[in-house]
Amino acid sequence: VVNGPNSAPASQFAVWKWLSTQRPDGILIELPTSSIQPLPYSSFMDRIWMYGQTIHHWPIANGALGESSVGNAFGRMVGDPGLPDSAANLAAAGVRVVVVNPWAFRESGLRSPDTLNPPPGYALERDYPDGTAVWRVTAPAAPALAVFDQGFARFSTTTEWSLRKPTGTVALYTPHGGTFSIELSAYSFVLAGTVRINFGGGQVRSLSIVPRVSQPTLLQVHLPTGTTLVTVQSIAATGTGPGPEVRTAAWKFVRVNGSTS
């Protein structure tokens, strides 16, 4: 039962009703996302947000249901608005409006954000007596976005990600294909090695990894419109076998050429 004792309170329907009177000007996301919620809520909340869509009819970024997917990985990146890059990542994906639900954070055993005082990259648009709030994403949108998926874990509350398996997957998304310069840096803690990144279409790039020395690197690649799955492999310094755990800062994109419309 969507509005049962362990589900959305009646106040949630007031938010959905108001949204139904607004013309969508982008994508909507409800927080917290299922991706950051512990069991047994990791898919339950997404079902509530999907039910809400039948009322307000906005396109939503929720719905991964906690399953292994790019959508779930994206929810993990942006599910906590306190993370320093959450607003920028939402903007890059076309998300313009965020509904922050304190009751859902509490029910999931998570700390709720201060909904009346959004962090940088957000602006308060509407609030409700129970603390529920509608935020507008004000962060500028980057031309492309890297979603760290299988094999990667965020390091603490920073913008860094650790490749904790020999091979990982990064989903690159851009609404307009073209040639991009990607700025990234990577390092290990103890062992040297090599990181090999396969962008597809014969575009393979390799980086030397030095212990405790983060080395910024610029890579130029062509990306088609939409999502491109990239494989990242850590290789031992000998050239064979698994390499060290690698930590990388969030990838930054600059368009070199291609469509911007």
Can you tell me about this structure?
- With 261 residues, the chain is α+β, with helices and mostly antiparallel strands.
- Helices cover 18% and strands 36% of the residues.
- It has helices at residues 10-20, 44-56, 70-78, 86-92, 102-107, and strands at residues 27-31, 95-100, 122-127, 133-137, 145-148, 152-154, 160-163, 167-174, 178-187, 193-198, 204-209, 215-223, 226-236, 246-249, 252-258.
- The strands form 3 sheets. Strands 6, 7, 9, 12, 14 and 15 form a 6-stranded antiparallel β-sheet that branches.
- Helix 1 packs across helix 2.
- It starts with 9 loop residues before the first helix and ends with a strand.
Write the layout of secondary structure elements.
Blueprint lengths: L9 H11 L6 E5 L12 H13 L13 H9 L7 H7 L2 E6 L1 H6 L14 E6 L5 E5 L7 E4 L3 E3 L5 E4 L3 E8 L3 E10 L5 E6 L5 E6 L5 E9 L2 E11 L9 E4 L2 E7 L3
Tell me briefly what this model is:
With 261 residues, the protein is an alpha+beta fold. 18% of the residues lie in helices and 36% in strands. Strand 10 (193-198) and strand 11 (204-209) form a beta hairpin.
What are its keywords?
261 residues, alpha+beta, 6-stranded antiparallel beta sheet, 5-stranded antiparallel beta sheet, 5 helices, 36% strand, disordered N terminus
